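2 proteins. here.
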Amino acid sequence: MTVQIDIGELTSGARAGLDLEELLATRLLVQGNSGSGKSHLLRRLLEQSANWVQQAIIDPEGDFVSLADKFGHVVVDAVGTEKDLQMIAARVRQHRVSVVLNLEGLDADRQMKAAATFLDGLFDADRDLWYPMVVVVDEAQLFAPSAAGEVTEEARRRSLGAMTNLMCRGRKRGLAGIIATQRLAKLAKNVAAEASNFLMGRTFLDIDMARAADLLGMERRQAESFRNLDRGHFIALGPALSRRPVPVKIGPVETTGRGGSPKLMPLPEQPKQDAMDLIFTPSADEVQPVRQRFAEPVMSTGEILDQLSSAQRAGEEAEPQAESLLDFGEREEKVAGIIAEILSEEDAAFQPIATLYQDFQVRCRIAKLPGGAPDLQAFREKLSVARAGVEKGEMDDSAWAQAELIAAELPQDMRGVYLLLAKAALGKTACPGNLEIATAYGTRSPGRARWLLSHMEERGFLVCATDLRGNRIVTLTDLGWQTAPGDEAAA
């Protein structure tokens, strides 16, 4: 079956057609500087072929999500883990649904990893699912760079491998690659070389014009003609387009992108003083920066001892012992209050356990705590939980009892960290950052926090994963609870 789709018109006034069945076997490369009309061309091609073939668009800027409203494409935002994205890609091939992979908001490194994961999922589908599919990759030089850049070597290697598979081996799996790039010089040659159809738009650099002329079989002196192309005008060549280079003007489209060229408009008229007020006066809904205030001076241990001596000379009574369960409950409340007072002081959370316990004993004697101060082991456990900021009253008692039971299998100084993660997982809140975990452990080192999570993961208490936006997700294996994604670098 031969399907000709209309992409525009030739200089003679005739319609410019593209053989869709031939395109599936020979692939397409589009080049043009920013503003030359590449995205417009891709949108025209996608709209005209939407009813004939399944489509997948790798969209780094979120420009093609508008296809969903008119043509029923499903927008896949790059969230969750790489495993989730790979499973989505497998379902896309299974159910033959056209999709737009929206990578907007991700940095270059994560965009490359997400695109590689999705393309690998399409490529690795079972043989029974090798239905024809057009795979459009906008800004292909980001995913198949000709040289190493600022991204990590792992991300570059994975993305380049996935793009190479798409263009070199995708045909047998029904995948027809359509790649668009601003500069041919930035695109890996082994990826560009596999395309047999070309649409070359406006470009200015000599190296790009020469390479475009070579691909189209034009003489070098004709290369400068690419500088004179208007926006939306391309030179077409290939078995799916034309047997010789012909100029094509791309036709109109039905949908619009969220980007586009900015339009000039006059500046608002306002007196100079009003403009100064707008700049230098904060608005009512503007978030004001919070200035860090110095904490109140911390009372030294010597001053506390002086208070203790004065109280003893005044003839304080002997420390009463707990005689009933009511007294015991009040005692636990006082212990919790004393520990909270200690941790409220500046840098107290990072003091050695021996120093904190000495301070705790003194405060217990001043408070006339019934039964005396708890021993060091009990204090260490209570301090660990208090550092984590866990309030039992906020939790379901039965569920929280399970968390405490499992935390008891860890060393005492790690129990608070586990309960901190359990609190976040039970409340479906974001995973705590490294600094928060480190503080719960009694250190300022984010590296120590990462070691703690690795240690607990090795012992089978939890599993750490990273979603495609780089946020951490922690699953507590024994409880089956999972935190929401959280930035590990969050303060």
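next one coming up
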Amino acid sequence: MSLEWEQVIVHSVDPVALGQWWATALGWVVVYSSDDEFEIRPEPDRLPGLDFVRLDEAKKSKSRLHLDFRPEDQDAEVARLVAHGAQRVDIGQGEQASWVVLADPEGNEFCILSQRRQ
């Protein structure tokens, strides 16, 4: 048996707005859009993607699954994403953590890790 990772589903009150936010943040392309679903990928035929699907209830607590990103320059990437509308959040990571926890416009947490050691 073999499995191919197709996408991560993100429930969203406004899938088009949130999906477009992530498409811009990641520099990904839109491969499908409707009022209830918005799918993006790194390239049209490259997997996995992110698929934002309407769920008419707001996020209620800390996400049980989140994305981690490893940038070339953590400070620059955090600043860029905050300027794009992300917010810094405290989920108990403490001040000594080597990663920065941010949240997208609907409150979904994600981490910007430190630069990879050379």
